[in-house]
Amino acid sequence: MIEDDLGPIDSEDRPTVLITGACGYLGRKLRKQWGDRYDLILLDRNPGPDNDEVITADLTELDDEWAELFHGVDAVVHLAAHSHPNASWEALVGPNLDALPNVLNAAVLAAVDRFVFASSSHTMWGYRDDGTGPISEDLPPRPDGSFGASKLVGERFGRSMAQAFELAFVALRVGWVQPDPNDPATLPDDWARSLWLSDRDLAQLVECALWSELDDRFLVVNGTSRNRRSRWPISRAEEMLGYAPLDDAFAVSESE
């Protein structure tokens, strides 16, 4: 179990973690939650102002300049993607399909041990109106559109690489995370509440995925908080990764 209050790790013992998409809202949340726990190598296509520590990299083109940054890295967190659920195939091909195999190749060539991929619950949203049963990771994937399909392709890329090389690949089917403030009181409905992932649970989940011992080199888990009445079971993440989420979107709505 990862403690709620994540304190600093001694500088001599800090692992090196490379984060792609470091300026997206998931990347910013991790950087804020982790503080000085890790030596971070941060990549983003468009870092923007006030991100001097972030390295500009176009991951859609495999390039030795950014690929060399993977050497000496303990783990990779791949967040870079076009994240709009209604994006067209044309918009998704580069950031969601071309970038991932490039980043995986760089990780394998640099002998990185662990690769954490931000997949999406949209790989399974096709079950939304199909009964009330649990939407577990064992069900056949059912994306609700091009974005979800692109994330499913990412999972399958990762499975292939994990089978072929000494690389452990963990795909997190991230639920509903809002840009700051990620307040469950602003969620639109119970479906969103069932999928909510708080900032501190996000940081804990990714951290568990980074360092937990795995029975197999490939793993897919649902990524939500401990939301009561949710159709999205998190038992696999709890059992396989030691994930112990602390928050519940319904607790907020019921206390109002």
Topology of this structure?
Elements: E1 16-20, H1 25-34, E2 39-44, E3 54-56, H2 64-67, E4 75-78, H3 89-109, E5 114-120, H4 146-164, E6 168-174, H5 190-195, H6 199-211, E7 218-223, H7 235-241, H8 249-255
Parallel strand pairs: 1-2, 1-4, 2-3, 4-5, 5-6, 6-7
Helix pairs in contact: 1-6, 3-4
Structure explained in plain terms:
By secondary structure, the protein is of the alpha/beta class. It has 8 helices and 7 strands; from the N terminus they run βαββαβαβαβααβαα. A 7-stranded parallel beta sheet has the order 3-2-1-4-5-6-7, with helices on both faces. β5 (114-120), α4 and β6 (168-174) form a beta-alpha-beta unit. α1 (25-34) crosses α6 (199-211) and α3 packs parallel to α4. Mean pLDDT is 94; it is low at 1-5.
Short structural summary:
By secondary structure, the chain is an alpha/beta fold. Helix content is 34%, strand content 15%.
What Rg is obtained from the alpha carbons, in whole angstroms? 17 Å
- Percent strand equals 5-15%
- Work out the number of β strands: 7
| Structural class by secondary-structure content | alpha/beta
How would you state the average pLDDT, rounded? 94
Helix content: 25-40%
The major β-sheet equals: 7 strands, parallel
Summarize the helix and strand pattern as letters.
EHEEHEHEHEHHEHH
The poorly predicted ranges are: 1-5
Shape: globular
* Number of helical segments with 4 or more residues: 8
